[in-house]
Amino acid sequence: MQDRRGVEFHSIEELVETVGWNVRNALLGEVYATPKPGLVDRRDTGSHKDMSYETFLASTEAITPYLVDMFEAGLRSGAEYEKTAQDNLSSDSLTDEERLFLGIRNIGIGAEKAMYAATDNVNTHKGMIFTMGILLAAAGMIAGNRLKKQHDDRAGNLSDIRSNSEKSVAKLETQYVFFDINEILETGRRMSARILEKDFIEMEKREPKSHGEKLYHNYGEKGIRGQAMEGFPVIKEMGVVSMRKYLSIAEDEALRSEICRRATLRKDLLDAEGNMRDEHFENAVNISTLLAIMSELNDTNVLTRSSYGEMEWLKAESAKIVEIGAAFSEEGLSAIEELNVKCIEKNISPGGAADILAVTILLLKLEGIGYV
Questions:
Q1: Is residue 228 in some structural domain?
Q2: With CB atoms counted within 10 Å of each terminal CB, which end of the chain scores lower, N or C?
């Protein structure tokens, strides 16, 4: 396992390119993870008949440039924001973070259009675009503010970054941007909380139309927008914590012993010396983190396709699998396979949890921890 801190770069262009690779690899890391209950992976299409592994590959290539654009918008710290008719807060009362959130909405719309064009009108990543877009813009704002403060003239004028074809290429000494996950999540909350609260107030004045509006109307579930308003607690408290734990399992003898007390540590993950095999390790980390997220998240994707009771059933089943070692134990892996069959039978797909997994992978990559 790599253990480094921060993102190294020598120019603003290189920083943006590195973030772009991390975005792409995080999206691919989610779809590569196999097996996943009810979700598309390398083995089957889960509960989906309208999409495949190849659909996700095409979607990833289509939306990645737009997600990178949101990071660049953060680097500009919202300087290109223009007031639109959709604004529901007074322009004078908006913070820089809120201006940035409103400014990236059009980029998100472009990403959705590119996704639908690449997938023959299949929704593969709409929720992902929302969540990852906010947090990439937040990360960009944090990086831009630090660089402007620390390097003024030497770093080039970040506000002059206009597009992929006109990036600042000012050469720097070797630099590192140190991303703090909690700071990114908190910035994302400040960007979105007041604006999204106003959105919910407007929802209450009209008949619900979208799936999300109907779930809010019927159950009071705010979905991923509610997560954003609270600083994405499921990412902070479950996704990141779980992934850190599983990434340390190769060195954490106590954690491995804990799994062995309840189940059988998978032999195919171990080499002759008893160390974790790299080629299988990342997959097991990602699957296990996904199950941990599924055990806590009120996944509105599941709720839309089934019922509140089925959503609670899936959370309980996922928690049982986590207790026996998830993808790191023989019994856990078998239980994941069985849960996949049940999810397909019930037409359940925890797509919200899959989005949170991809964003968690990205955040740890930005922090400088991970394999890719």
A1: no
A2: C
Of the candidates 280, 285, 255, the residue with the CA atom closest to the CA atom of residue 267: 280
Instruction: Compute the Cα dihedral for 164, 166, 171, 175 and give only its sign.
Output: negative
Measure the CA–CA gap between 150 and 148, rounded to whole angstroms: 6
DSSP-derived secondary structure for 90-142:
-GGG--HHHHHHHHHHHHHHHHHHHHHHHHTS--SSHHHHHHHHHHHHHHHHH
Query: Is 226 contained in some domain?
Result: no
CB-based burial label for 167 (10 Å; 0-12, 13-18, 19+): buried
214 plus 260 within the same structural domain: no
Residue % of the chain over a pLDDT of 70:
87
Question: Are residues 82 and 58 part of one domain?
Answer: yes
* Domain tally, the chain: 2
Instruction: Tabulate helix, strand, coil % of the chain (nearest 5).
Output: 65, 5, 30
State both tokens at 118.
């690449």
> Which range marks the domain in which residue 171 is found?
2-219
- Tell me the average pLDDT of the chain: 88
The answer to whether residues 53 and 174 belong to one domain is yes
Residues whose CB falls within 8 Å of the CB of residue 24, separated by 6 or more in sequence, listed in order: 60, 61, 64
Indicate if 6 and 40 belong to the same structural domain.
Answer: yes
The answer on 152 and 25 residing in a single domain is yes
340/334 Cα distance (integer angstroms): 10
pTM, full prediction: 0.89
- Give ∠ CA 239-241-242 in degrees, rounded to 5: 65
Residue 225 lies in a domain: no
Type of residue at 101: F
369 has which bridge partners?
Answer: 3
Same domain, 246 and 363: yes
Same-domain check for residues 329 and 212: no
pLDDT at position 173 is: 67
Q: Are residues 281 and 255 in the same domain?
A: yes
Please determine, for residue 272, whether its predicted confidence score (pLDDT) is greater than 80: no
At residue 321, φ and ψ (nearest 5 deg) are: -70, -40
The CA distance from 235 to 293, in Å, is 8
Tokens linked to 327: 């993808």
CB contact at 8 A, 355 and 128: yes
Q: Is residue 322 part of a domain?
A: yes
